[in-house]
Amino acid sequence: MSTAAEDELSEVEREGLELIRETGGIHQSEFWKELDVDSRKGSRIIDGLEEREFVEREETVYDGHNTYLVTPIRDPRDLEFSMLMAGDMLSPFVGDEEVDPQSDAFSQWVMSLAYED
Fold first, then answer.
1. What phi, psi does 69 have (nearest 5°)?
2. Were both Cys, which of 13, 92, 97, 102 would link to 9 (CB 3.0–4.6 Å)?
């Protein structure tokens, strides 16, 4: 699923963003190599992604050289479903219906959450 802002990216910017998201973070020098672009073009791609708030850069040392670690910024629309789970049970509060906190479904979910390893 792409957002309207992602639809405005050039093909190489989309490839770069996909690479950063797939790796969970990549050093800038490795980013250029993976995309097969020179350092100048790689920096411009990252600059554009950073300006649009898709990624962020943090100074680091990699292979004895100063560089940047480029990581994806989470989309606030991405939900962390694990927070709604207790074992394999989804929270009974997810959905359209009101849930009685005294209900068996809620009690079972809380007990599963309490005894989760």
1. -100, 125
2. 13
